[in-house]
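Lecture notes, unit on protein representations.

Consider one protein chain, 123 amino acids long.
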Amino acid sequence: MRNFQAGLDRCKQLLRTWSKDMNGKQRQLIRQRSEMIQELQRINQGDFNDTIKGYQREVNQLLAEEEIKWRQRAKQLWLKEGDKNTSYFHKCASQRKKNNSIHQIANERGEQVSNKSEVKDIF
């Protein structure tokens, strides 16, 4: 049992190191590509348009991945810290349920349907 626990601790340590390394590399790559875009835009006379667009797509993709990571981390913290069975948590959960429900939808004829049973039938 101790060997198993030691293995888990080692795995946890390696994953943390890997995560920090990957996050650092991602930020560094975003910074490098952004600097490259600025430099190419400064000296560009129409020759580097495709290169600039490619770098911009890469930066946008990296930024989107980073945003997803932070959104997931925030949700993870909310689930860990927020679920204290408090009235505040219940109000937030109820509000989220209300926001995620469909109250009105268009049917196949384009008519707006708001009756719960009709909305259910569309799905």
